[in-house]
Design a protein that fits this description.
Strand content: 25-35%
CATH class: Alpha Beta
InterPro entries: DUF167, YggU-like_sf
CATH topology: Conserved Hypothetical Protein Mth637, Chain: A
Family: Belongs to the UPF0235 family.
Number of strands: 7
Radius of gyration: 14 Å
Protein name: Putative duf167 domain protein
Largest sheet: 7 strands, mixed
CATH superfamily: YggU-like
Shape: globular
Organism: Erysiphe neolycopersici
GO cellular component, one term: cytoplasm
Oligomer: single chain
Number of domains: 1
Length: 126
């Protein structure tokens, strides 16, 4: 079985459609302001650099802002569901409706993250 990827979809057990996508992130705090943003997208993680220090939730807010801007996703539909006090976080992208092809949708999100990265998208390795 392959390890979970950078983006995973979650399906509500009562409804067969896609309802949430989980994004696995590695956060680097205290980067220079001009380096803030998505640095790398790999098969397993999205590396994000934030200027804010991990104090009083400032870095977590910056992570949500960066993901929201990168994916054009409403901030209200983003939530850190794992790793609030860790540099490794899982962010839930909620508010998804009307998706028929889950794998294609997740691939589009991954490509959007890669296009907004400051460095590069590291291709899938199979």
């Amino acid at each position: 079985m392959a390890p979970p990827g950078v983006l995973r979809y979650a399906i509500n057990s009562l409804k067969p459609e896609l309802t949430c996508v989980q994004l696995r992130c590695h956060i680097k705090t205290g980067v220079a302001a001009n380096r803030q943003g998505i640095h790398f997208v790999t098969d397993n993680l999205v590396t994000i650099g934030v200027f804010a220090k991990p104090k009083d939730g400032e870095a977590n807010k910056a992570v949500i802002d960066i993901i929201s801007q990168s994916l054009s996703w409403p901030r209200s539909d983003l939530q850190i569901i794992k790793g609030l006090k860790s540099q490794y976080k899982t962010v839930a992208l909620m508010g998804i409706t009307g998706v028929s092809n889950k794998e294609e949708y997740v691939a589009k999100l991954r490509n959007r993250l890669g296009r907004s990265s400051k460095s590069r998208l590291i291709p899938n390795q199979k």
